[in-house]
Amino acid sequence: MSLVVDRWNELAEIKDELADRDWFMGTSGNLSIKVKDHPLEFLVTASGKDKRKRTNSDFLLVDHEGHPVEKEESKPSAETLLHCEVYNRVSAGCSLHVHTVANNVVSEIWGNHHEVVFKGQELIKAFDLWEEDAVLRIPIIPNHPHIPDLAEAFGEHIYSDRGAVLIRNHGITVWGRNGFEAKKLLEACEFLFQYQLSLMHAKNSLLNSTNI
Asked: CA 87, CA 93: separation in Å to the nearest integer?
C-alpha cells in the first residue's frame, strides 16, 4: 500500500504542476503512473474531475485492461485504454495526455502528413537524440471517436519506453520510464510546438511586410 501512496503523491505533484500551466482546460487531459508490473496495476485520473484541485478521489487503481482494482464511485478516464496500450507494450512507468492550443494547431496543420518533424532544435535532446543531424518525428493519428479504435491506432506507434503521439485536434500523449521523464518529454514537445508556430507566424509577418 505504501507504494500506491508514493505513486499517488508523485502523480498528484505532476498534476499540480501541469495544472499551473493551464494544460487541463475544461477537465480535459488524463494522467497515469504504474504501481507494479505483475500483475500490472497503475493509477489513472478519474473521469470528469477538475484537475486544478487536489482531492482524495483524483486517481483510481486499475488493472491491465483499465478496470478498477476495487469498487469505486468514480470512473477511470474515458481514455484509460491509451494508457493500457503503453504499459502492456513497453516498460514505461508514466503516461501523460494534455490538450493545449499549440498541440491541437500543430496536429491540424501537419495532420495530412501524419507526422510533424523537428531537426536542429536543442529540445529534441529530451528524447535522447544527441547526433548532430538527429531528427524527431512525432506521429499524428486520427481522432477516432470510438476509444478502442483510437487505442489501437495509438498502440501502433509505441515502440520504446519513451515516446510521444499527437492525436489530431485532440492533444498529445507522452510516456517515459518514470514521472520525471514523461513530464520532461511533455514540456519539450510543448516548447517545440510553440516554437514552430511562433516561427511560422514570424516568417509570414516578415513576408507580408516585404510585400507592402
From this structure: 7
pLDDT 10s digits, 41-92: 999 999 998 999 999 999 999 999 999 998 888 899 999 999 999 999 999 9
0.85 surpassed by pTM: yes
Whether cis (ω within 30° of 0) applies to the bond prior to 142 is no
What is the structure's pLDDT at 204?
83
Work out the widest C-alpha separation in the chain, in whole angstroms. 67
Counting the structural domains of the chain, the total is 1
- The Cα 115–Cα 100 span in angstroms is 17
- Residue 38 annotated as part of some ligand binding site: no
Provide the 10 A C-beta neighbour count for residue 100.
22
Tell me the three state secondary structure of residue 179.
Answer: helix
DSSP assigned state of 64: T
Q: 211: pLDDT confidence band, cut at 50, 70 and 90?
A: low
> Which CATH number covers residue 37?
3.40.225.10
Inter-CA distances, 12 with 16, 63, 121, 172, 210, Å: 6, 19, 31, 19, 50
Is residue 2 pLDDT above 90, yes or no?
no
Is 99 annotated as contributing to ligand binding?
Answer: yes
The range of the structural domain enclosing residue 16 comes to: 3-210
Q: Which residues contact 98 (CB under 8 A, 6 or more apart)?
A: 18, 23, 24, 28, 29, 171, 172, 186
